[in-house]
Amino acid sequence: MNNRRQIVITHLQEKTVMLYMESEKIYDVLVGEKEGAESIEVGDIYIGKVQNIIQNINAAFVEIQKGIVCYLPLSECDDRNIQCGNELVVQIKKSAVKTKQPVVTRYPEIAGRYCVIQTKTSRNGISKKIRDQARILALRQLLEEYESEEYGILLRTNAADAPLDEIRSECQELTAEMHEKMEHSQYRTCFSLLRKETPFYMKYINSCRLEDLDRVITDDQEIFRQISPVCGSRAEWYQDTSYPLDKLMGISSKLAKAFDKYVWLKSGGSLVIEPTEALTVIDVNTGKAIDGKRNKETTFFRINCEAAREAARQIRMRNLSGIILIDFIDMKNRKNQRDLMVLLGEELARDKTRTALVDITKLGLVEITRMKKNRPLREALERPEQPA
User: What are 341-364's pLDDT values in tens digits?
Assistant: First the structure.
């Protein structure tokens, strides 16, 4: 088994697609807009105009380009007298999903590899995933240099083992950029694009610890040029035109299975994944896994553990969001139940998208919520054709 951890960036259906893979399995899939099309991306900063205010749904609707209207929660405008016709600096926070407009925020952020510059607060912070106390002390001392700064600085997990000079340099660069964008916004016309977000695959790479990656491979020369300064020797440019990267990695075949309702487990059990408008239900079935088994409790626990790992992967790969319910096989042993929840929590914690393991209902259904940020895979891509 190939245990390589890698990021693959290629083109499918005239779109740029990025995949994060471990042991030849896909965990994350990000899909760009159709190539050559004008598009708005999460992170873009615009000068928009308020077109409508609807108090009973606590929303303002802001036009950022001709015909592109976004949703702005009024909770972000409580301290300001917002009126129709006002021009505002807004940032795309969530992309459009089905009939729902993109969501914008009045508090832009600029994220780099080591830090995030925030306009909502002037407080500085350090990622809670950094646990080493000596390192935390060193980072706090670095942040003291920015105590009088108007914008807040949040140091990301990647700052845990990066050179302090590199972190300081990025903080200075991005803080200066945020000042430049916000201060010059008053001189720009409505619908101006103040800042185009870095490509989605670069944002993903910046969120990763390079030490955790074996390679970042692409068959696009321009993308290779972009990733090389960040990824160094881990960046690979695949140039064999006689055998496409898609076929080499089996990408279309793997993605085609991500559209299936049924997911088969090695144990003989299965998952049944049913997305609906309101929520997604994942049912765990024993299938043939209990044939001839005497100790069913042990078998159920083993199947449920395998199902927990696979369900967490499917949620990430398919980019499922909102409310998710998992119906595991009933188990009587309380310790097995607790161990299963711990395992599921650990698997969900690996997700870069905010995901919460909520509780178990009285009916034994496990409740999960996952933040809606990008379109689910079934909307972002058409079902790929599997090779004959």
Answer: 999 999 999 999 999 999 888 888
- 5-20 pLDDT, tens per residue? 999 999 999 999 999 9
Please tell me the pTM assigned to this model: 0.85
- Please list the rounded mean pLDDT of every run of 10 residues in the chain (388 residues): 86 94 95 74 93 89 92 80 89 84 94 95 93 95 94 95 95 96 93 93 92 95 96 96 94 94 92 93 83 75 95 96 95 93 96 92 92 88 74
pLDDT at 38: 62
What tokens were used for 74? 């009024």
Distance CA 262, CA 265 (A): 10
